[in-house]
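Record 1 of the preview.
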Amino acid sequence: MIKRNIRDFTLNLSDEMSFFEVFRAIAALLITIGLLAGFAYLAKRYGWLSGNFTMQNTEKRIKIIEQTFLDAKGSRLMIVAIDGEEQLLMIAPNGAKILKDLGKSKTKPEVAAITPLRGRSEQA
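->
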């Protein structure tokens, strides 16, 4: 039978790994995590995850012209231009519906900023 002392199972950094080896392992881990985060950012930024590998057509095809909130649940009316054709949409929590086809867009409007729903006291 082999008898072992408890000292044989304790970790002694001076015997097993030097401070430099521990530092080198942690630095390698941080560099690897940094590279992964960098590639994830680039993939999200340039749309590589959605299968769109080309960035030649930077003009957006869908533009929000105007929107109006109807209630606190998030229902709203939106005028959306899709390839120059304007449509009136009703967006609700349970789905969306095209209410009216407004035809060709007369001007090339800027994309309207989507603002969060304000309280009724601020709107009055």
